[in-house]
Amino acid sequence: MILHRKELVNKKYPFNSLKDKSTEERFNQEYLKLISDFDYIIISVLIDKKEHKIKYSTWKYDPYHYCMEILLERFFFFLESKSANGDVMIESRGGKEDLRLKRSFLRIFENGTNFIESDRLKMRFTSHELKVKPKMLNIACLQLADLLAHPSRRFMFRTYGIEEGKSYTFGDEIIKIIETKYYKGKSGIEGYGIKMLP
Q1: Nearest CA to 115 among 57, 49, 195?
Q2: Which residue in 1, 3, 54, 108 has its CB near the most CB atoms, within 10 A?
Q3: Domain range list for the chain
Q4: pLDDT by residue (tens digit) across 97-117?
């Protein structure tokens, strides 16, 4: 079964069995246990697309691509700190968008960033091509990332003092768990596991 956050939250098919309180409680407890027990590291970036467009009206850098570059830098630093290698996979957004992101990834891989030279990136990333997979393939890591994206956004809203809107008790339980999963540097998670982009 492919997990869709919207259908889960609203208990829509195929998750309509969650309308039963006891079933929902068992599901929630198992879910919390899994995200607590799994071994993973979270790196998240946050950008206000509207403010970004106003501030950098002459900068033609797509905010999604800007976010990807910052994520890749932090992933690189994490890999380097562990003397490890890694690969990058994202969930498909559609034909043209996927091609643009692939081209952007290749550009970063071939030219480096403002802080990391291309040769150093090539030492840590195992592929020069961005892997793009659709949700329907039911890839576990993409499913987990999809489910944790919204709680991570809310956690960052709180961290940076941004109004987060309606609060959910179960969402708060998720946030308590993922707080321990962020990539940490010497000064904590800010700038390492989380980054607010200008």
Answers
A1: 195
A2: 108
A3: 1-37, 41-196
A4: 899 899 999 999 999 999 999
